[in-house]
Amino acid sequence: MLERSGGRVMRNLTPTAFLAPTANAPQRTFLGDRLAGRYLLIEPLGKGSASRVFLARDERTNAHVAVKVIPPYGTSPFATRERFDAEVAVGCGVSHANVARILDAGLSVWGEPYMVTEALMGETLGDRLHEVGRLHEREGLTIAREAARGLVAIHRSGYVHRDVKADNLFLCDVPRHGVALKVIDFGFCTRVETPEPHEIRQVLGTLEYIAPEQALAETVDARVDVYSLGVLLFRCVTGELPFDAAEKRGVLTHHLTSPLPPPSWLVDGLDPAIDMLVRSATRKNPANRYGDMQALLDDLDAALAGRPVLGAPVVVTPDGYEPTTEKGRAALETLREEV
Q1: What phi, psi does 181 have (nearest 5°)?
Q2: Which of 122, 206, 250, 283 has most Cβ atoms within 10 angstroms of its Cβ?
């Protein structure tokens, strides 16, 4: 991991402090830009549909940082800005070793929102899994535990991540300490205490990991992240995602209606505790899952220590997701008819 430029007090930036992007600003490379008079953009690191990420040097501290910029062109800029604001709020408000830190945020002279994060050296868990296929069960459990620790901190701050997946877990190379994991990308985070009205709620998340209530754009809480982390543990120890279909609609239908197969069906000799962990995390009815991320973390700790895993009791039978809105009921019925 490169040196942090931490220790500074964040500037008081709120969503209402941001100006609207300049709609007619020309597209440009950004390289060589100096943001806030100190962050010199020196190398592109990545590009998404709504943002660009650069390696930068903080000229006040001579530390390397990463800078994410939202250009003023592209689709749905204001929806993007809402997600940007949520990302800044979580990254600035959560201080935990397993959560990536946002060090600063502001506007460029062109009116583009940007955020400054610690620069991480390593690879995403997604990259690792593409390279090696599946992980040894202890490594998979350890990664799930470290992710759960970061997610507990995010949940305690009042947010739900809503996009827990392999590509949003970063494995940092730390000299003399092996690998440390950080939860990244808070753009889909939402506050639990102030859910959006269903009429304007969007389906956000990644299809291969999505919980039933999230897939139907219904009210969510920390248990959607529990579900996604259960799917992730399945992938870590088997090398496969639980549901594979020719069309995305088929994957969605499976998440809404089909139990995950036990990981031991795919890997001989797998610790039975992993089957219990995955099953308890990914039940369709949220009431039948672990009640919160801490409960899942406790069982991950137990599995790694060789203690009995408690799992989560089934309190609603049969296990299945029952939509809570008319739109959700109609959508689920349509999917069932097409199976």
Answers
A1: -105, 140
A2: 283
Residues catalogued as catalytic: 163
Residue 163: name the closest of 126, 133, 121 by CA. 126
Residue numbers of the domain that contains 70: 25-118
Cα separation values, 124 from 1, 52, 129, 173, 182, Å: 13, 17, 9, 11, 9
DSSP label at 11? P
CATH number of the CATH domain containing 249: 1.10.510.10
Q: What local confidence, expressed as pLDDT, does residue 27 receive?
A: 60
Residues 107, 146, single domain; the answer is no
- What proportions of the chain, in percent to the nearest 5, are helix, strand and coil? 40, 15, 45
Instruction: Give the containing element (helix H, strand E) for 124.
Output: strand 122-124
Instruction: Give the model confidence (pLDDT) of 78-106 as tens digits.
Output: 566 777 888 888 888 899 999 998 999 99
Strand partners, 69: 52, 114
Longest Cα–Cα distance of the chain, Å, equals 61
Overall number of domains in the chain = 2
Q: Are 328 and 188 in the same domain? A: yes
Whether omega before 318 lies within 30 degrees of 0, making that bond cis, reads yes
In percent, the amount of the chain with pLDDT more than 70 equals 83
Instruction: Give Cα separations from 25 to 17, 56, 75, 118 (angstroms).
Output: 20, 22, 14, 28
Instruction: Please report the pLDDT score of residue 339 as a whole number.
Output: 56
Enter the pTM of the model.
0.86
Query: Residue 68 in contact with residue 117, Cβ under 8 Å?
Result: yes
- What is the edge-to-edge ordering of all strands in the sheet holding 169-174? 122-124, 169-174, 178-183
Q: How deeply is 229 buried, as exposed, middle or buried, from its count of CB atoms within 10 A (0-12, 13-18, 19+)?
A: buried
